[in-house]
Design goal:
The complex is a heterodimer. By secondary structure, chain A is mostly beta strands. Chain A has no helices and ten strands. The chains are: A mainly beta, B mainly beta. Chains A and B meet through strand 4, strand 5 and strand 9 of A and strand 5, strand 9 and strand 10 of B.
Chain lengths: 109, 116
């Protein structure tokens, strides 16, 4: 199966700082999704991004499928951005997302 | 309106018992999933159903049995619960694209199962 590696494993920021989270994956993928798990445990889908770049407010994501990586950018971070960020590529098995181990983000006021 | 709902939210039970977790989605999606998140936050898919048909069945003990009475519901029944089954179980759903790929997956709030 696909191997997924996320970096960094932990990230501590002051409010207002920018950050980049990286996701490397080992095989060709049909799509890739980014999720945020908030401190209450809810998993929220941030992006569905098989390739290219998408933006949603202060967040943007880029996937370069040919080089097998995806990046999540968070600008002007806020305390509400705290939580765990997961990337999850879908390989050739329909619907099967393989989750990375996550990046734990803590934003201090 | 809750898009993907699960009941119960918390489940505390003794080893050896049998329990069920229910999931419902009102998004009109074709595909539903069960995931397990362990104490280290690692998320792994267990099962997936598309229009009531099982399409993903990962290496999961056969004590776990999913049941899909219709495409809006996917329940998870667990027999003879063990300590290692303690985890958070998430249900999710997505629609099937014309290209036969899946679309964005939407997750329920999770069910925290504690086996004593």
């Amino acid at each position: 199966g696909i191997q997924v590696e996320q970096s960094p494993p932990d990230l501590i920021l002051q409010e207002g700082a920018n950050s980049t989270l990286r996701c490397n994956f080992s095989d060709s993928v049909n799509n890739l999704q980014w999720f945020h798990q908030n401190p209450w445990g809810q998993l929220i889908n941030l992006f569905y991004i098989p390739s290219g770049t998408k933006q949603n407010g202060r967040l943007s994501a880029t996937t370069v499928a040919t080089e097998r990586y995806s990046l999540l950018y968070i600008s002007s971070s806020q305390t509400t951005d705290s939580g765990v960020y997961f990337c999850a590529p879908e390989g050739t098995s329909y619907g099967k997302l393989t989750f990375g181990q996550g990046t734990i983000l803590t934003v201090h006021p | 309106d809750t898009a993907v709902s699960q009941t119960p939210k918390y489940l505390v039970t003794q080893m050896g018992n049998d329990k069920s977790i229910k999931c419902e989605q009102n998004l009109g999606h074709d595909t539903m999933y069960w995931y397990k998140q362990d104490s280290k936050k690692f998320l792994k898919i267990m099962f997936s159903y598309n229009n009531k048909e099982l399409i993903i069945n990962e290496t999961v003990p056969n004590r776990f049995s999913p049941k899909s009475p219709d495409k809006a519901h996917l329940n998870l029944h667990i027999n003879s619960l063990e300590l290692g089954d303690s985890a958070v179980y998430f249900c999710a759903s997505s629609r099937k694209l014309l290209s036969a790929l899946t679309d964005t997956q939407y997750f329920g709030p999770g069910t925290r199962l504690t086996v004593l």
